[in-house]
Amino acid sequence: VQLVESGGGVVQPGGSLRLSCAASDFALRDYAIHWFRQVPGKEREGVSCISSDDRGAYYADSTKGRFTISRDNAENMVYLQLDSLEPEDTAVYYCAADSRYRICGLVSGKVFFWPPREYNYWGQGTQVTVSS
Fold first, then answer.
1. DSSP readout, 1-49?
2. Which of 44, 55, 58, 64 could lock 51 by a disulfide, CB 3.0 to 4.6 Å apart?
3. Where are the alpha helices (DSSP H) in 85-126?
4. How many C-beta neighbours within 10 Å does residue 85 have?
């Protein structure tokens, strides 16, 4: 089982990118798909989650209103649209999944991300750099 991210790049502040997460050997629609990001020296940070069968899409407070997660089940893809990018969004972005998680976790109405070690499936990451 392998996830593959793409779509990263270098963009100016205020710009946009669309990241893609693909899987070649399992159906993404059957899993909650999580996006994380990581900068050197810091822990991997949860960014967004979309539940299986589109039962909900959720965002970390730092990205709410700027990022949009979506699925294309026919193409077996999950996308993360990044708008109004800020230098603080610079990171390597990863998509992740685990067979135990079919819906996104919520605590008091906010999305909950399990520790990265709890996910079985990861991609290799795609670099997003926001710089003028």
1. --EEEE--EEE-TT--EEEEEEESSS-GGGS-EEEEEE-TTS--EEEEE
2. 55
3. none
4. 21
Residue recorded with tokens 């979506």: 70
For residue 30, give both structure tokens: 């059957």
Provide the token pair at 83: 């708008």
Map tokens 């793409």 to a residue: 6
Q: Which DSSP string do the residues of 85-96 spell out, in sequence order? A: --GGG-EEEEEE
- Side-chain half-sphere of 35: how many Cα atoms within 13 Å? 32
Query: Could you tell me if residue 13 is left (phi over 0), alpha (psi between -120 and 50 degrees) or otherwise beta?
Result: beta
pLDDT tens sequence across 44-77: 999 999 999 778 999 999 998 999 999 999 999 9
Q: Is 78 exposed, middle or buried (0-12, 13-18, 19+ CB in 10 A)?
A: buried
- Contact, 36 vs 94, CB < 8 A? yes
Q: What does R_g of the chain's alpha carbons equal in angstroms? A: 14
For residues 104 and 58, the answer to whether their CB atoms sit within 8 Å is: yes
Each residue of 119-129: pLDDT tens digit? 999 999 999 99
